[in-house]
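BUG: 3D viewer hangs when loading the predicted structure for this chain

Environment: internal workstation, default settings.
Expected: structure renders.
Actual: progress bar stalls at 90%.

Input used:
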Amino acid sequence: MRHLHTRTTPTPRRARTTRPLHPGRTGVAATLAAGLLCAATLTTPALAAPGGATSEAPGARTASPTSADGLALTPPMGFNNWNSTHCRAEFDEDMVEGIADLLVEKGLKDAGYQYVNLDDCWALPSRDANGKLVPDPVRFPGGIKAVADYVHAKGLKLGIYTSAGTKTCDSVGFPGALGHEYSDARQFADWGVDYLKYDNCNNQGVDARSRYTTMRDALRATGRPIVYSICEWGENKPWEWASDVGHLWRTTGDIGDSWGSMLSILKQNLPLAPYAGPGHWNDPDMLEVGNGGMTDTEYRSHFSLWSVMAAPLLIGSDLRTASAATFDILGNKEVVAVDQDPLGKQGEVVSSADGRWVVAKEMRDGSRTVALFNESGTARRIATTAAAVGLPDAYAYTLRDLWRHRSSNTAGTIAATVPAHGTVLVRVSADPAWATNPPAVEPALEGSPLVEAGTTATLTSSVTDLGRTSATRVAVTLRGPAGWTVAATGPTTAASLATGRSLRTKWRVTVPTGTAAGSYDLTLKAVYRSPAGVATDAELPLRASVVVAPPSGTSGLGDLPWLSTSNGWGPVERDTSNGEDGSGDGGPLTVGGVTYAHGLGVHAASTVEYYTGTACERVTADVGLDDEKGTKGTVAFEIWADGTKVASTGVLTNAMPAQPLTADVTGAQVVRLVVTDGGDGIDSDHADWADAKLSC
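Structure tokens produced before the viewer hung:
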């Protein structure tokens, strides 16, 4: 259970054990996760004014701390040190003040980031003789007030951390606030703290609502405006009762720096939109942008989706070593403006079929921000309409791409071919000045970008005018890697494209013999002019995979190369269970007391893709939850042949023995092995594809 979660100073990888510390994580992974458990804390008033009321749901409230104290009128933005330093000695006064400097120097303060939040390990392990908290004199020789003064002088705010228990989450056991709420709150206020992160460890089984309400009252009694972040991991559905207790509440367990973890958190937080609004926010945990476990495309999706969900934006990466790409993502003011829109609406799901997500957020000016999010591992077209996202009927609309920073006009269609794991984020409005913008043009590519070395693939591109005005002098190009032959076998230009009309072009793409298997860049680009003669372009980055034909006969899937993988924690493992941390840290594959020598060890949510090239017939495996997590975890296994689900198990628990699973994959070009979380999050979901085989 998460209420037993602890964290420790990172240590070298140790032997795997079953620990009741953090579900779904063991060893170093549990250690590092603990600091992620709560990514938010307490803040002073946000800059924006409150907007309109949010939609109601059972238990949702519009009367919140906002109406009483005016705090957190937009989702808090800032930095939390845990991912950067954990409890290491480098977490000290100099480091914290240096982060404040960087927020200013790198323009992040100007973008809206306000809080510099101290996480666990700032105090000594024991209170003084008067029961007061004592800042660690080695880490903070000037005390917390001196740090607060420094941060305030930069025009920023300071956050601090404690737990609604007898001890905090670190294994050292720093003092928690349970039973000391009024004394600790008074100290925080006297030091100039603006934001409190209140964790849930070592809570002694005391009712959550009672514990968090007591700290609310203690903070109010100080008279200092402090934003209050409830971090009880969503265990007691705080969205149903905490809108008059705290300003934000965690809705899930920890986020991890992986695609599968981010995706699972997203899916748990999206349905809670009716409970969010000014002064009472759903918190899906801190940002992982820049920590290295995802691609920049995935990090842009992460940042886009958190912004559309009106989530707190708390940087969890080390700004001292952050890349230019990380600063570009975190500093995108147009995306930040979506998160900080004063109406305070969390985006709602319009559609999500087959992993093609459309999430729309109502904005105060009447526009809609629309995220076209591609959950899948291949580029896909995602489309909706202005009417479907709630805009009024109009002859045309202005569409603003918030990552490309370009505006165009559309007749009402909102569509794009979205790269694998990517998000196109646009802001759409019924704008009377729509005609000043060029028409939106959508480039797309049909056909499979999977090709064996020494062979030729045929692809078809299309360039479609989505605008109300015509695109003129249209030209299209397709570029591949050096040494590849890319030749058009159809027209590549059009004098004009009216609304809804397309230029279609066939291409022959030949991969040189001897090209190594792997992914390679393709770029489809359309250039065109508006009716006024303004030149513009639309570009679609794509990935082509050079693949190897599967061997004839029956092969173990653990022995074959895969096209792609994604995992909730850690990498997909061959012939061992998933250890959640680095490659090779798992144990023997064991389900229901039976040990298997071969197979795949994964952690939900997981996808493993194999190229089968229409040459294979059958996949078999014994599937189940690995015994290493005891009675914890629930998952479901699925096998997909191209876009069709051909076998599934339903929800499995650790009480069940391995289940035989067989799928007919005849004629499929790609086979996907999928493990979902069973509908209850990904904690402890160690899943095994034991003795998995492919027959071709």
